[in-house]
Amino acid sequence: MLRVSAALLLVCLAGPHVLATAEVTCSITSELKDSFGAEDGTAASLVLSSTLLGQVSELPSGTTLLVPSRQAWLEFFHGLGFSTITSAMRNATQDRHLKKLINSVVLYHVVATPDLNATGDALYVPIHTALAGYKATFEFAEGPGEGATTVEGLVTGASVVEQGEACGTPALLLDAVLLPDQLKKLAGTSSLDIPDALDALAAGKDGLLNLANISLSLLGGPEDGATIMLPTSSAMLNAIHSLDVTDAEAALLITRVPAIAAYLVVPKALPLDEQVPATSFQTLLGSLTGGSYPLTLRVQTNAETVPNQVRGNFNAANILNTTQVCSSWIYALDKTVLPADTVEAMPLVSLD
Asked: So which residues are the signal peptide here (predicted)?
């Protein structure tokens, strides 16, 4: 019987292949991947963009947030010479020129909401951005009132992939990062070489975007605070491996994905620096089932005062980083905190 190993799952997630022995497992992996949410969906991209931008909930009324996809951000940072978003952001903390460049690009993606009633028959409408002195041009290919189809920056443009909102602010998902000017005019790039680290901004498969769509769908409105524990992708794969799941049992695991997701949600906003070590919180899974499924925030040593670990019923994980989205908090974890030590012991719940 074929075992679903972390290595094989990585092969499946990597894309098309011709390994005949992996066909069933990869099909199951595809379902798991769909269950955990698209890697480049609006929710996932919002997490990344809001991390770069700061608190989305603080945007003034009358503004629209342009949200480049995760792949678009990766290509942007690759163009600056960085292999991951993590390395770029770490460099930015020490290089004021790079920080200025990133800030300028991010601010360029906050624009005044177009007044569709005032555009008349115009198909191209220049819009002021939060980057002083710079505008972006909205193209209404379907005519006024139908929504923009593309947005053009001074140097690059992007297609509008999806329209929605983020914390009550209108948002447009873009397939590229807009550049307001030549990069050399915004600021110089960095030559620092800081090793990458696994944290909330880690790029690629090891990202905080692992459970973004399924988890962010549980947040409710902007006023409904919650805290979501998001393991990295590799942490999720390791968890599947630790459960010793066979391909015969993998279909059962898929039915328990909602339970795992619900166990990673505390229906209460928990700013980390305000929490007291050794405090336990009821999870969404506990509320749904009436069972005992708490998570406990704790410290590694008695000398520490701010929690840096999350303990569950079965295992514990280190908190890599935190970020705020709307009125909720996201903790990036290096392990997947599971509600039970076997798939069979996990409850069957619905998140509909």
From this structure: 1-22
- Fold of domain 42-186: FAS1 domain (2.30.180)
Beta strand pairing call for 294-298 and 328-333: unpaired
Q: Say how far apart CA 166 and CA 153 lie, in whole Å.
A: 22
**DSSP conformation letters of 76-125:** HHHHTT-SSHHHHHHHHTT-HHHHHHHHHHHHTTEEEPP-TTTSTT-SEE
How confident is the model over 26-84, as pLDDT tens digits? 333 343 333 333 343 444 444 444 444 444 444 566 778 787 876 787 788 788 887 76
Q: Which pTM does this prediction carry?
A: 0.54
Over the range 32-68, which residues count as b (16 or more CB within 10 Å of their CB) and which as e? bbebbbebbbbbbbbbbbbbbbeebbebeeeebbbbb
User: Hunting for tokens 């020490």 — which residue is that?
Assistant: 94
Q: Are 104 and 131 in contact (CB under 8 A)?
A: yes
What DSSP character marks residue 3? B
Domain ranges of the chain: 6-35+205-333, 42-186
Same fold, 6-35+205-333 and 42-186: yes
**Inter-residue contact 265 to 227 (CB < 8 Å):** yes
**CB-based contacts of 306, cutoff 8 Å, min separation 6:** 272, 273, 275, 277, 299
